[in-house]
Amino acid sequence: MQTLELMQMGLDSLEEQELQETEGGAWPKWLKGVTWVSIGNEIIENWEDVKKGLVDGWNSIK
């Protein structure tokens, strides 16, 4: 068991608050939504380049 192994080495596992601090916490939901909208907008505005890149990539694996 992970906890037992840590204790044998004189270590202790991180608690939830400590994990959030080391992982940087979480992004707010509104920021995630804005990010997806921005990505979608970039794809729409640059569709011809995106399509060409996808076609070129697909053709390169044939």
Keywords:
62 residues; mainly alpha; single chain; 4 helices
Structural commentary:
74% of the residues lie in helices and 0% in strands. By secondary structure, it is an all-alpha fold. The chain is elongated and about 60 Å long. The N and C termini lie far apart (47 Å).
Quick rundown:
The protein is an all-alpha fold. Helices cover 74% and strands 0% of the residues.
Blueprint of the fold:
Elements: H1 2-8, H2 16-23, H3 29-45, H4 47-60
Average pLDDT over all residues:
81
The low-confidence runs, each spanning 5 or more residues with pLDDT under 50, are none
Number of E-type strands: 0
**Rg from alpha-carbon coordinates:** 22 Å
Query: How far is the first residue's CA from the last residue's CA?
Result: 47 Å
